[in-house]
Structure formats: structure tokens, C-alpha cells
Amino acid sequence: MKDSDREEFARVMLGVAEVYDKPLSDEKLNLYWSALSSLSIEEVKAGLTNHMKNTDDFGGCRYPLPADIIRGVAGSLVDRAATAWSKVLTAMRSTGRYATVAFDDPIIHAVIREMGGWIDACGITEDEIPFRGKDFMTRYRGYSQRGGAADYPASLPGIEQITNEAKDPEYQPRVVLIGHPQTAYEVYKGGKAGADLLTTTLKLPGANSPLC
After folding, report:
1. What is the largest CA-CA distance in the chain?
2. Phi-psi group of 192: left, alpha or beta (phi > 0 → left; psi -120 to 50 → alpha; rest → beta)
3. Residue 174: other Cβ atoms inside 10 A
4. Which helix (H) or strand (E) holds 102?
5. What is the pLDDT of residues 62-95, one digit of tens each?
6. Sign of dihedral through CA atoms 54, 59, 62, 67?
7. Residue ranges covered by each domain of the chain
8. Measured between alpha carbons, how far is 127 from 124 in angstroms, rounded to an integer?
9. N vs C: which end of the chain shows fewer Cβ within 10 Å?
10. How confident is the model at residue 57 (pLDDT cuts 50, 70, 90)?
11. Which of 146, 153, 174, 78 minimizes the C-alpha distance to 108?
């Protein structure tokens, strides 16, 4: 969370304290803020909501501790990781390994880099999808729980870029923006290296062709 979220965070926690009929001192509020600062305000709300709806062993009947809120966020993290993997799979099939790409989510860049890069990712077979997908989503959730990817590549180079750069160090690749174009562009500009390269927006098709 950002400092600008403090007021909203206080309102949310006061509301929760009223629901559970518990006192909320400034010291207690500050401790919760410190423990949950790596989450976004939206994730805190989602975590609280999921905890309060938890009927297993009447867990939702207990005033939420920071760990309960973080545990409550896990469900939304699973959904976000699955959505990110679906976006990556669609881009693999429709854009392929030859293009250099930039997604609208910096965590995708960080995870794909860890998994061997864009070209390697596009080389997986249909049989490997479940296993590579599980690996991707585990890594994605890890970044999300740590507050995101502070250090990520601006783009994920494809074969065309790597081949041409070997011949011409001054080569400037066309970068395909995946997902929401403006957000992908901001992710690209905020990444490491290549921030001054020419970018071209291309909407992501919903193709179901074999992996490239």
C-alpha cells in the first residue's frame, strides 16, 4: 500500500472492528499497516472479505489477524496468477517466439525471464503446458505476495530481435504490446533496458492455434 492509502485503510479497519465489536487503537492500526504494507489496498479488502466469509471451522467468526488477511488474499492471488498464465498462453499462440513482446503486467516479465525467456517459453509443447503453467503461477504468486516485481526486463526479446542485434548492435526491434496497450507501454517504459525503443501497439487476438 502507498501512504495515500492510509486513510482508506483506517476506514476499512474501523469498519471491521465494528463488525467484530473490538477496539482499534492507533498502535494496533499501525501494527496492521506495517504487517500488510506489501499488499495493495484492494488486496487488503479482498483478504478481509474472504476471511469474513470463511465458514470453515467458523474462522470468519474470529477477528482477523494480519496472517488471516494475507491468507484471505491467497484466493485472489490464485485467480490473478491463472489470468496471467492464460494471457501468456494466448500470446504464445497468437504472437509467437519471433516477436519481441511487452505485457501489461511487470510480474509476467519477471517470471518469464526466470523461466528461460520468451523464446524458450514459446517452445513448450501442449503436453508441457500443465507443468509449465503450474511453475509460472507459483512464481507469479510469489512475486505478488512480495508486493510485485521491482526489477523486471522492459520487454521479452523474440528471435527477430536477437538475430538482428547479433548483426547490428544499433538494431531497434518492434515491440508488440500485449493486453491493455497503455498499461503495457507504461510497463515497458518502466523496465530495465530498451526504454527508448520504438513500440508498436497490437491488440492480442484470441487465437487457439498450436504453440509457435
Report:
1. 69
2. beta
3. 14
4. strand 100-103
5. 999 998 898 887 666 788 899 999 999 999 999 9
6. negative
7. 3-74, 77-201
8. 8
9. C
10. low
11. 153
